[in-house]
Q: What sequence folds into this?
């Protein structure tokens, strides 16, 4: 694979194409006033292909450089004005053409009905979402999905790779409208395997309406992958190689064919790599001091595919089939070392535990979708989805625990364990959505039925004299069966030309059973049964106060059910004294969100939000009640969490050659809980973050970027307070062969400051910790588009997306 990627890189880099012409001009309205931040698009006259997109600066001036010779025409658009077209533009090689002043005609449509249709800013604020446009940003080279989420507006990723939006946890992660079938470590691994070169944009929906699933307290993050938008037959090929302490590489291909009756599309990709994670903890509990080091190393490979077919049965009916799959194998090795000493004399070490772990994991996933869509192009839409998904995870681990004397030369005690933890999850869904025009607005209604069956086996073995004996006291089988019946209705309309509204309500009835089957009769417990009906109202109001000023107010009530894997109470241990366990008695958390937004000049955005969460699901670090030396991480419900946040984003054109995007956020969080016997959570924290990306137009047709973020101190989970961290990335880009070949190089986390440091105190355990991983990397990425330039594959969601995100491995 390395050789193949190297050959591709050389082949892509040897060719170039001369494009030295340029066009400039100034846009004005009918009264001669400059039009700032308008979209200007250059098209080829021969085939109407898009050649270049720019925006005007604050003086209404635009300039397009690096253009080939030929015949072109320009279209310019701006909210509230009729589109402007300049035809018959003839460029010769090396020509610098000045079009002078170009004037829009007076508007003939109302402002409330106008839309911007041309170039994409790095961040776009839409009525129901914030869009972070990744494609074209140089510093995405060599990055992965998780790294890009750290840069997205209003999004933070904590020290355990948990994703938060506007300071709120419980966000759902989608890919192309379909929820990822992963949580926890599996989700983090998937996002790290997803290359930035595959990503077109990231949609951030902080307050979804009634049409969306009520699941997810912080809303939805939808990662949209690149799709061909061309007719005929076409494809693309991309590859990335990244090097830090270890390598990562991938190659990805897409293809599309379309005629009047059928559209066939698909993609196939392979990735492999390695990485490390180092964590250090200094913990104090029960009169003991535990000095702990965790070194994790892993190597992995990932094969993924998707194949879809759409049949166009007339102009209004479409039937589609979609099949997707993923095969991932991962080999992990880790070292857990804990030096144990009394708190009164921490230098007087009593013993040292050394646990070396080896694990082999494999994940097989398959999803199948049948879709029917009716669209009469007049507002009446019916969409039906039938889905089935299977997710199989296998893991085998071997763990010797050796207790040494203080000199770490003599073994005092040896305890060896091995584990088999297979899990099989199946998801079946039926989903129907209907929309139609009514009373000058849009009425929507729909229903969804889903069933999830999760079968988890945890087998714990004691290894003695080379033989394995199953420990029935520590082994179990956990089965979880969940059915959710949902229905919704919503309506969106206008009170006036400047005042728009939406309102809806969703009802979800949950019927679930968690059955823990012990191997010993005396350990058997009755099943956990859940049966409840929940209502989720939502409402929104948008007011175009003036042409350059927009206000919005949104409210929504949401639910976050616990992931299937965290309901299983078995212990997942790093060593005999350090482990994680689930909680079958977790309750779903309910959150009420309210957001106030303000947009200035269609590009400067401010959002103030407040959320109140009951039974917040969070992670807590606590001492073990059976072994005074042991500590563990578990899941619990907080009684209440209140959070206030403010987010600001501002794209700015500093000069003709320098554009700047800035995003800043701040939040205040208050966690409260009382578990009795002195186990109290009463934590308040103020945190802030800052992200900037500067893009530069450089000589020799190069484009450069400098980007980075700074995240202030904050809180993770219920009680872990973390310190500030930051990162700086550099990148360069150049395009060749009529912009079909894109070459990017970059360096991420140049100063190696992305890691985390912090402390927690809960229920008699005080712990200081830090963590680092393979974040400083150099990368090269190449992508090439070929074939007919007019194929467009249908984008669609399936009905499986909402349950899949709760599927989790270890």
A:
């Amino acid at each position: 694979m390395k050789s193949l990627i190297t050959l591709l890189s050389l082949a892509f880099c040897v060719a170039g194409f001369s494009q030295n012409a340029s066009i400039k001009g100034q846009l004005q309205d009918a009264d001669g006033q400059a039009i700032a931040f308008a979209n200007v698009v250059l098209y080829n006259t021969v085939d109407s292909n898009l050649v270049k997109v720019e925006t005007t600066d604050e003086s209404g001036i635009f300039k397009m450089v690096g253009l080939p010779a030929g015949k072109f025409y320009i279209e310019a658009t701006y909210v509230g004005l009729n589109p402007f077209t300049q035809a018959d533009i003839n460029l010769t090689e090396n020509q610098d053409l000045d079009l002078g002043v170009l004037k829009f005609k007076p508007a003939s449509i109302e402002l409330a009905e106008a839309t911007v249709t041309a170039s994409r800013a790095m961040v776009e604020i839409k009525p129901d979402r914030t869009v972070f446009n990744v494609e074209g940003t140089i510093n995405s080279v060599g990055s992965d999905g998780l790294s890009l989420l750290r840069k997205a507006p209003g999004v933070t990723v904590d020290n355990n790779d948990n994703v938060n939006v506007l300071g709120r946890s419980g966000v759902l992660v989608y890919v192309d409208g379909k929820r990822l079938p992963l949580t926890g470590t599996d989700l983090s691994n998937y996002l790290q395997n997803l290359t930035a070169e595959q990503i077109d944009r990231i949609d951030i929906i902080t307050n979804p309406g009634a049409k969306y699933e009520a699941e997810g307290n912080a809303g939805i993050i939808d990662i949209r992958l690149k799709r061909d938008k061309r007719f005929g037959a076409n494809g693309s090929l991309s590859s990335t190689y990244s090097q830090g302490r270890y390598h990562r590489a991938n190659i990805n291909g897409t293809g599309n064919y379309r005629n009047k009756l059928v559209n066939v599309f698909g993609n196939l990709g392979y990735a492999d790599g390695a990485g490390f994670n180092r964590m250090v903890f200094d913990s104090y509990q029960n009169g003991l001091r535990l000095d702990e080091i965790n070194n994790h190393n892993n190597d992995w490979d990932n094969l993924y595919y998707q194949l879809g077919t759409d049949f166009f049965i007339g102009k209004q009916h479409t039937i589609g089939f979609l099949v997707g799959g993923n095969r991932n194998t991962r080999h992990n090795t880790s070292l857990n070392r804990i030096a144990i000493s009394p708190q009164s004399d921490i230098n007087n070490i009593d013993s040292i535990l050394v646990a070396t772990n080896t694990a082999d994991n494999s994940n097989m996933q398959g999803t199948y979708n049948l879709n029917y869509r009716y669209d009469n192009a007049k507002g009446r839409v019916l969409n039906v989805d039938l889905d089935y998904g299977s997710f199989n995870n296998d893991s085998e681990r071997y763990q010797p625990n050796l207790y040494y004397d203080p000199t770490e030369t003599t073994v005092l005690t040896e305890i060896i364990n091995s584990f088999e933890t297979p899990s099989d999850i199946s998801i079946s869904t039926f989903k129907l959505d209907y929309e139609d025009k009514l009373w000058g607005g849009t009425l929507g209604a729909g229903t969804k039925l889903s069933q999830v069956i999760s079968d988890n086996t945890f087998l714990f073995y004691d290894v003695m004299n080379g033989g394995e004996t199953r420990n029935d006291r520590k082994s179990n089988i956990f089965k979880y069966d969940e059915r959710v019946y949902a229905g919704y209705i919503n309506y969106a309309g206008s009170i006036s030309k400047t005042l728009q509204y939406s309102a809806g309500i969703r009802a979800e009835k949950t019927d679930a059973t968690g059955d823990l089957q012990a191997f010993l009769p005396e350990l058997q417990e009755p099943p956990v049964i859940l049966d409840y009906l929940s209502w989720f109202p939502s409402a929104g109001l948008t007011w175009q106060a003036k042409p350059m000023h927009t206000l919005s107010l949104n409210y929504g009530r949401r639910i976050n059910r616990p992931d299937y894997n965290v309901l299983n109470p078995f212990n997942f241990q790093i060593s005999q004294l350090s482990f994680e366990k689930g909680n079958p008695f977790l309750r779903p958390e309910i959150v009420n969100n309210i957001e106030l937004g303000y947009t200035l000049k269609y590009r400067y955005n401010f959002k103030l939000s407040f959320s109140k969460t009951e039974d917040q699901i969070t992670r807590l670090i606590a001492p073990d009640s059976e072994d005074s030396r042991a500590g563990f991480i578990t899941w619990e419900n907080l009684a209440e969490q209140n959070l206030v946040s403010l987010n600001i984003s501002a794209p700015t054109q500093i000069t003709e050659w320098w554009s700047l995007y800035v995003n800043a956020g701040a939040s205040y969080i208050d966690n409260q809980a009382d578990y009795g016997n002195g186990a109290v959570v009463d934590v308040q924290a103020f945190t802030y973050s800052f992200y900037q990306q500067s893009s530069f137009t450089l000589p020799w047709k190069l484009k450069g970027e400098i980007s980075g973020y700074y995240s202030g101190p904050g809180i993770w989970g219920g009680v872990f307070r973390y310190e500030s961290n930051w990162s700086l990335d550099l990148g360069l880009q150049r395009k060749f062969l009529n912009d079909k070949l894109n070459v990017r190089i970059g360096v991420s986390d140049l100063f190696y400051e992305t890691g985390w440091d912090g402390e927690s105190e809960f229920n008699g355990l005080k712990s200081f910790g830090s963590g680092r991983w393979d974040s400083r990397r150099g990368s090269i990425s190449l992508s090439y588009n070929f074939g007919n330039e007019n194929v467009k594959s249908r984008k669609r969601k399936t009905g499986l997306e909402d349950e899949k995100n709760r599927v989790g491995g270890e």
User: Anything to note?
Assistant: The longest strand covers residues 288-313.
